[in-house]
TrEMBL record:
It comes from Veronia pacifica. The keyword Transcription does not apply. It holds the Pfam family adh_short_C2. InterPro entries: NAD(P)-bd_dom_sf, Sc_DH/Rdtase_CS, SDR_fam. Belongs to the short-chain dehydrogenases/reductases (SDR) family. This is NAD(P)-dependent oxidoreductase. The keyword Oxidoreductase applies. Keywords: Oxidoreductase. It comes from the Bacteria.
Length: 248
């Protein structure tokens, strides 16, 4: 039977590449986006051109009501939800901790931690074999920053990804007996638009000589790791992380 995969923040970057990789695995993909409807439509079109199946749904994943609407829509789909990729995330401009406003820290946590929490809560209810579901897989897109702390740059972002990692480990143990696996990926420096929002569009090329593999990562590098974690090949893998950092 066809199954559903939800990828949050999938209108561009790592989310887009992941949506395409999961469509190639045979999932019908729900492409969640926040503002970029046209971009989301174009990802759905790319998936349809390769013979896959996808649809789009606009929702701010940090908003509880919007997340409920998103999952209500998925409930109406004939295929069961089997995969959730919590990809949506935000990064504010580089700043020392002393200059970070409480509002900014709050917004970062709402998007990077509360959003994945809300989606995990809704998804596990539907996937749980103890509640009539067929099991499933969750992948949380964290960051290498969860371990470095990103001093003088984005301590708020690093802390949010640290919280996401802890939730990943705890949830994996909580839902293992419900047939649900939960893992994370920790990308390093990946060529996407997030660095423009971080205030340094050329960050990846500036730092690429420091990466042992001597290049910045591409969205597809991260998507491959996510696709592996979602596949049957990873059937005995839960509560852990894949670093996709080129050795950094
Ligand atoms: P990106 O900015 O291209 O993608 C992030 C997506 O999330 C965007 O489409 C954005 O619209 C969406 N989004 C943000 N807030 C949202 C919300 N509240 N609701 C719904 N969608 C929302 O950047 P990316 O690099 O593709 O980032 C994807 C993930 O990878 C993020 O979680 C990011 O923290 C993580 N990451 C990226 C890098 C990197 O170097 N690019 C490194 C480590 C981790």
């Amino acid at each position: 039977m066809q199954s559903l995969a939800l990828v949050t923040g999938a209108s561009r970057g790592i989310g887009e590449a992941t949506a395409i990789a999961l469509a190639k695995q045979g999932h019908t993909v729900c492409i969640n986006y926040r503002h970029q409807r046209q971009a989301a439509e174009s990802v759905a079109e790319k998936i349809s051109q390769i013979g896959g199946d996808a649809f789009i749904f606009g929702a701010d994943i940090s908003d509880e009501e919007e997340v409920r609407s998103l999952f209500s829509l998925l409930d109406k789909h004939p295929s069961p939800l089997r995969v959730l990729v919590n990809n949506a995330g935000i990064l504010f401009h580089q700043s020392a901790l002393a200059d970070i406003a409480a509002d900014r820290f709050h917004t970062t946590l709402m998007t990077n931690v509360i959003g994945p929490f809300l989606c995990c809560r809704e998804a596990t209810k539907r996937m749980s074999t103890q509640h009539g579901g067929g099991g499933g897989v969750i992948v949380n897109v964290s960051s290498a920053a969860s371990r470095t702390g990103s001093p003088n740059e984005y301590v708020d972002y690093a802390a949010s990804k640290g919280a996401l990692d802890t939730m990943t480990v705890g949830l994996a143990k909580e839902v293992a007996m419900q047939g649900i696996r939960v893992n994370g990926v920790r990308p390093g420096l990946i060529n996407t638009d997030i660095h423009a929002s971080g205030g340094e569009p050329n960050r990846v090329s500036r730092l690429s000589s420091k990466i042992p593999l001597q290049r910045g990562g591409e969205s597809e590098d991260v998507a491959s790791a996510i696709a592996y974690l979602c596949s049957q090949e990873a059937a005995f893998v839960t509560g852990t992380f894949i670093d996709v950092t080129g050795g950094l």
